Amino acid sequence: MNGSIFLPWVTLFVDAGDYFFRRIFFNAEKKRTQPRRLDLDARIARELRPYKIVMSVYNFGHRLPEFYENWMRDYADKILMIDDSSPDSTVAVARYLGLEIWETAVNLRKPATLRHAIRHLDQSIDTVILMDPDTRVVVDRESFERAVYQFQQSGANASSVNPTPYLSSGN
């Protein structure tokens, strides 16, 4: 009878010791084998597939310089603006700032404009991020591209984010 009481406690002790040994040993191994952040950043830079941020704009010329200075400057090479036949200076201002902008001959409205842009994007573009010009990304480009990379690696076809408003509702 003493042996039957003793055996479960020994088994429990050995199992617990084995559990803690594995946790300590494998966590130490993980720490030694995990790539440093610099290695991860280099991997992301190497494996990040081409992406574009597509924005449909209409009568945005008067806000475009401020928007460019406050947000677009870091992302200008990744942005494609589609002007939906604005009667103002949106196209001229965008070109002056060196932005890629396409024009539509007639006002197609936002959904059709975005579909048109997606259909006519260069085939090398792997990921399309649709964004309104009245929202902005509030992280640095490195963090943004890390999120794009993680999305690309996830295998998902679509994602939605809660944007931060750029312009107040009074504008």
Question: Can you characterise this structure?
Answer:
By secondary structure, this protein is an alpha/beta fold. Helix 2 (37-47) crosses helix 6 (141-154). 48% of the residues lie in helices and 14% in strands. The longest helix is centred in the first third of the chain and has 32 residues, at 2-33. The chain contains 6 helices and 6 strands; from the N terminus they run H-H-E-H-E-H-E-H-E-E-H-E. The chain is globular and about 50 Å long.
Topology (elements, then pairings):
Elements: H1 2-33, H2 37-47, E1 51-57, H3 64-70, E2 79-83, H4 90-96, E3 100-103, H5 110-120, E4 127-130, E5 135-136, H6 141-154, E6 164-165
Parallel strand pairs: 1-2, 1-4, 2-3
Antiparallel strand pairs: 5-6
What's the short story on this structure?
The protein is an alpha/beta fold. The chain has helices at residues 2-33, 37-47, 64-70, 90-96, 110-120, 141-154; strands spanning 51-57, 79-83, 100-103, 127-130, 135-136, 164-165.
Based on CA inertia axes, which overall geometry fits? globular
Helical stretch count? Answer: 6
Number of strands: 6
Helix amount, in percent? Answer: 40-55%
**Which structural class is indicated by helix and strand composition?**
alpha/beta
Sketch the topology as an H/E string, one letter per element.
HHEHEHEHEEHE
